[in-house]
């Protein structure tokens, strides 16, 4: 196993131990229905990930004007994800739904995703 693959496994183990399960959901668009002339309803797909929800620090507020009051930082282990989170996904943590807002960071040394750092807003 390569070094960064081991780091991805270690990140998952650490976040699982000290974090919590989070649900990432995305809506797949419906397909065109020629009989009705419109799109069929889309479907929602979910995956469970391991994450740590953190507050932003005062220094981060000073350096980044995109952070709003109430925003949180969510670190998600990349290992075992079915798909990569994107800005159109929603995240459910302890029954509360959060939107992902820019920036979305991927820690990816040498092409091996280790974790994703998301800014989330409810």
Please specify the SSE layout and strand pairing.
Blueprint: H1 3-18, E1 20-28, E2 32-33, E3 38-39, E4 43-55, H2 58-63, E5 72-77, E6 90-93, E7 96-107, E8 115-121
Antiparallel strand pairs: 1-4, 1-6, 2-3, 4-5, 5-8, 6-7, 7-8
CA radius of gyration:
17 Å
* Biggest sheet layout: 6 strands, antiparallel, barrel
Q: What structural class do the secondary elements suggest?
A: alpha+beta
Runs with pLDDT <50, length 5+?
none
Shape: globular
The count of β-strands is 8
SSE series: HEEEEHEEEE
Average pLDDT number: 93
Strand-residue fraction? over 45%
Task: Provide the spatial order of strands within the biggest beta sheet.
Answer: 1-4-5-8-7-6
The helix tally amounts to: 2
Distance between the termini: 39 Å
- In percent, how helical is the residue content? 10-25%
What does this structure look like?
- This protein has 122 residues and is α+β, with helices and mostly antiparallel strands.
- Helix content is 18%, strand content 45%.
- It has helices spanning 3-18, 58-63, and strands at residues 20-28, 32-33, 38-39, 43-55, 72-77, 90-93, 96-107, 115-121.
- Strands 1-4-5-8-7-6 form a 6-stranded antiparallel β-barrel.
- It is globular and about 55 Å long.
- It starts with a helix and ends with a strand.
- Residues 23-43 are annotated as: Disordered.
- This is Prophage PssSM-02, structural protein.
What descriptive keywords fit this protein?
alpha+beta, 2 helices, two-stranded antiparallel ribbon, 122 residues, Prophage PssSM-02, structural protein, 8 strands, 45% strand
């Amino acid at each position: 196993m390569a070094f960064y693959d081991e780091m991805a496994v270690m990140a998952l183990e650490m976040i699982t131990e000290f974090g919590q399960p989070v649900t990432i959901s995305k809506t797949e668009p419906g397909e065109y229905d020629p009989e009705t002339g419109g799109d069929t309803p889309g479907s929602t797909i979910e995956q469970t990930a391991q994450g740590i929800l953190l507050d932003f620090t005062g220094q981060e507020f000073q350096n980044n004007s995109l952070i709003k009051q109430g925003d949180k930082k969510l670190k998600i282990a990349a290992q075992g994800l079915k798909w990569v989170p994107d800005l159109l996904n929603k995240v459910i943590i302890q029954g509360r739904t959060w939107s992902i807002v820019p920036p979305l960071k991927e820690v990816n040394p040498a092409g091996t995703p280790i974790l994703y750092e998301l800014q989330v807003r409810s």
